[in-house]
Amino acid sequence: MTGNESPLPDGYADHLRLLTETIEALRGTLKADHTLSTDQRLFARRLLYLANEPITEAVRLLPDPAEEDDSVDSQPAGSTVEYPEAITTIEQQLSWLICSLRTGEPAAHHYDEAPTEKFTTALEYATALRDILSSVPEDSPVLADREDINLDNVDPHVGGRGNGDGRWLEYQLERALGRWGYRAATRQHLYSMEIDVVARRREKQQQPSDWIVAQCKNWTDDPITPTALFRLCTVAFACRAMPVLCHTTELTPRTEKLARELEVRVLELPDLERAELPAPQIAKPTMEFREWEPQYRAREHRGMFPLMFRSEPGKRFSYVPGFKPVGNDADYEPIENDRDDDAHPAAGH
């Protein structure tokens, strides 16, 4: 679509910028606010995520805005916000975008869904935050005169915990993998075990991450223990695919350590908004300041094969046959010419 087909209203760039900055500030405030209950924080972050998705899609459909003067106050980067003011600001900016774009929007057949409808969906989810955060008045002064916003269809529990059985998080990961160049499917089976998400790159990059198996933990209270991680890694080795753990809770310290050493990609909700599949975490912050000790790297600290196996060809850490780890980060390279003298069929594979 070109700018001639849908001229943007004056002030579009400024209102959009304030909207996105306020959403980012609110996301940071929610993440750092430990006065909220676990359910409040997770449901609020979920609703904010659901509000941001249609905004991103609507902006992608519209032309890029020209540079404008700062006629709308900006939100300082990294700042925290008060919940009532932040939600009201989001509602104000979305309402402005909806009303301003309706007059110049092309026919609906140009889109799967018109940008104004996507902004309206975002407004519905953003306003539902008022039911989650007790410090925010339930009635929105911005929406008092609007009759086209129906909050009855917005449920912060949708597809998630309880009757949803975690399908909401699986769906979000499936969408993200599709954006990252994968064909993904949920609720697949490996023999008698169910796998939450499996994915294969549409265009192979000759990397082990061309194949992925993922486990989703959309929990509110319990931390993830090594048992869940061991199951995921077992499935990954069996499927010859790289493991991904996507969660909304916490990992025990032991689980965090094992995830680094076993090269499991650990993703949280904000990671699903990234431009590409994140790499595994292979290091951790140090407690010291300006202590120039050697950097911790998981491959150097995870140990080795049993002594009886170390000297045998083909014994290397790799979920996907045909690749071997190189360096101390998370890189692999194809095994092109294996010169091992062992004639065993498993050698080098």
**Shape, per Cα inertia axes:** elongated
Q: Biggest sheet, in brief?
A: 5 strands, mixed
Q: Roughly what fraction of the amino acids lie in strands?
A: 5-15%
Strand adjacency order, main sheet? 1-2-3-4-5
Radius of gyration: 24 Å
Number of strands: 7
Question: Fraction of residues in helices?
Answer: 25-40%
Unreliable parts: 156-164
Write the layout of secondary structure elements.
Layout: H1 12-32, H2 38-61, H3 83-102, H4 115-128, H5 167-179, E1 182-190, E2 193-201, E3 211-217, H6 226-239, E4 242-247, H7 253-261, E5 265-267, H8 298-301, H9 307-310, E6 323-326, E7 331-334
Parallel strand pairs: 3-4, 4-5
Antiparallel strand pairs: 1-2, 2-3, 6-7
Helix pairs in contact: 1-2, 1-3, 2-4, 3-4
Task: Walk me through this protein's architecture.
With 349 residues, the chain is of the alpha/beta class. It has two domains: 12-153, no CATH class; 162-273, Trna Endonuclease, Chain: A, domain 1 (3-Layer(aba) Sandwich), CATH 3.40.1350. It has nine helices and seven strands; from the N terminus they run H-H-H-H-H-E-E-E-H-E-H-E-H-H-E-E. The strands form two sheets. Strands 1-2-3-4-5 form a five-stranded mixed sheet. A hairpin with a 4-residue loop joins strand 6 and strand 7. The longest helix is centred in the N-terminal third of the chain and has 24 residues, at 38-61. It is elongated.
